[in-house]
Specification:
There is one protein chain. The protein has a six-stranded mixed β-sheet. By secondary structure, it is of the alpha/beta class. The chain has a single domain, classed as 4-Layer Sandwich (Nitrilase/N-carbamoyl-D-aminoacid amidohydrolase). Helix 2 packs across helix 5. The mean pLDDT is 92. The protein is globular and about 55 Å long.
Length: 375
């Protein structure tokens, strides 16, 4: 009988210890508002035709610890743009790829925000949510089940924070916001609310109107890179939508989509006048490294002479938005990049503006930037 009691009590004790550990220390740490703004720049002049403000925020894991932290950090950048008199009713604010993706760590154990490596942070997240993690149904097409399951597990909360924050900011500052990107499963808009469902995971972006409501179209990434393909799905380039914004008809190409002619052909067919590109390039000093060619898809023949011969920076300027617009009779575009110290990911890239066919580049700064592009 004693053995039976121990056999029953011991697992219950272990379960109690685990439950206490997994639920402990989930209060969001206090936010140290570190904006790291190293560049503020205005391109052109106010011709009353609207403007695009590209914000490259410098993000830390703690910025994603709660909705309040994320809102406070983003609001601080919008406030700085307002102080520069960059914002009015005809302003479109462009934010970078993956900006909201790291909301996956919202309301997790505090230790996650202070890990040095992303892999360690994700494993701690898995262990502290193991019951919810194992309940996720993974499609057969998914080759990397851990990132897929973690993002799907947190998707409802991520979607809610994403919409709440950018809806509030759009209303507060009276601007249109191209709200970077976020990873969500089977996203849809129902009565102006962002919903998720079981199924494929996508890299998506919403655009918020000055009244806080999103445009009904969802932008999905059509050309996920090699590191994304094992757990992300894609849309067809013909599905990329166009939006009637204060700056004119606008297309949004999420990062790598800006390298592919099929994406520009879709936008040209919709008669867009402006191309917005939210991007993220991981790795500190990544732009100074040798370009290896297209990631996840075959490199076009015309790029062959440059593979392993030019830098990543040179390739972005030659083969992405800055080099593609002219080929499709498009004159204006803006490319921004996410910056920050997000575990061991690193980041690189500066803002790229094409105004009336002429290239304007931001500064090579290791920090945040605010650039205003007057049309």
């Amino acid at each position: 009988m004693k053995f039976i009691r121990i056999f029953i009590i011991f697992p219950l004790l272990l379960y109690g210890i685990y439950t206490f550990w997994s639920r402990a220390d989930r209060a969001a740490p206090e936010l140290n508002l570190d904006l790291q703004i190293k560049e503020i720049k205005s391109i052109g002049k106010d011709n009353k035709k609207g403007n695009v403000v590209g914000i490259q925020p410098f993000m830390y894991p703690i910025d994603y610890a709660s909705e309040a932290n994320f809102y406070t950090k983003m609001d601080a950048y919008f406030y700085e743009a307002q102080k520069q008199r960059f914002l009015d009713s005809n302003t479109v604010v462009l934010l970078p790829e993956y900006l909201a993706t790291w909301l996956v760590v919202a309301h997790e154990k505090q230790a996650i925000y202070f890990q040095t490596r992303l892999e360690e942070a994700m494993m701690l997240m898995l262990l502290s949510n193991i019951s919810s993690f194992w309940q996720i149904e993974v499609p057969e097409t998914v080759r990397e089940t851990i990132p897929y399951s973690l993002f799907v597990m947190k998707a409802p909360q991520m979607a809610q924070i994403y919409q709440n924050v950018f809806s509030l900011l759009a209303q507060k500052y009276g601007v249109t916001i191209i709200a970077g990107s976020i990873l969500l499963p089977e996203p849809s808009l129902v009565n102006d609310r962002l919903q998720v469902a079981k199924g494929n995971l996508y890299n998506i972006s919403l655009i918020f109107k000055p009244n806080g409501k999103p445009y009904p179209q969802i932008v999905k990434k059509a050309f996920p890179i090699a590191q994304e393909q094992p757990f992300l799905s894609r849309c067809m380039p013909q599905e990329i939508p166009a939006f009637d914004l204060p700056i004119g008809k606008t297309g949004v190409l999420i990062c790598a989509d800006s390298w592919f002619g099929d994406a520009y052909q879709t936008l040209q067919n919709q008669q867009v006048s402006f191309v917005a590109v939210p991007s993220f390039v991981s790795g500190n000093e990544a732009w100074s490294k040798t370009w290896q060619g297209y990631s996840g898809f075959a490199s076009p023949t015309e790029t062959t002479p440059d593979i392993n011969r030019i830098t990543e920076e040179q390739a972005w300027l030659k083969y992405a938005m800055a080099g593609k617009l002219e080929q499709y009779n498009l004159k204006n575009g803006f490319n921004v990049f996410l910056r920050g110290n997000l575990w061991d990911l690193g980041s690189d890239g500066y803002s790229i503006v094409v105004k009336d066919g002429k290239l304007e580049a931001g500064s090579k700064v290791n920090g945040a930037s605010l650039i205003c592009f007057w049309l």
